[in-house]
Amino acid sequence: MHDFDLILTLTAGLGAALTFGFIALRLRLPPIVGYLVAGLLIGPHTPGFVANRAIAEQLVLSPKTVSNNVSNVLQKLQAVDRAKLMLMALEAGLGQPDNPRDV
Fold first, then answer.
1. Up-side HSE of residue 60: CA atoms within 13 Å toward CB?
2. Range of the domain at 69
């Protein structure tokens, strides 16, 4: 028997990635931005902010492509690092922190 939580997490992750990928395209950003936001929304069970190599393997992209897209997002949103991007997403109402008292 399959683990229902895992199936639910995967389904939600794919749905969120699809939705936010399209939103990112509408905002003229690379779809990977939407995928990263989807990772934040789903929680600690999905890879949201991991090393470029891990993201690249999951999206079947080169690590350099992932690095370039992350750099573009950081520049466009004037964030200094990925942690700042995560805080900006949380402040914008995208996702929930692990501990709501931390925000």
1. 0
2. 4-94
C-alpha 87/C-alpha 95 separation (Å) is 10
Q: With 0.70 as the threshold, say if the pTM is over it.
A: no
* Tokens read off for 84: 């700042």
Residue 58's H or E segment, with its range, is helix 52-59
Q: 40 vs 44, which has greater pLDDT? A: 40
Note whether 66 and 77 are within 8 A (CB).
no
**CA–CA gap between residue 60 and residue 43 (Å, rounded):** 22
Is the residue at 100 inside a domain? no
Share of the chain above pLDDT 90, in %: 4
**Residue 19 falls within a domain, yes or no?**
yes
Distance of CA 42 to the CA centre of its chain: 9
Task: Specify the 3-state DSSP secondary structure of 92.
Answer: coil
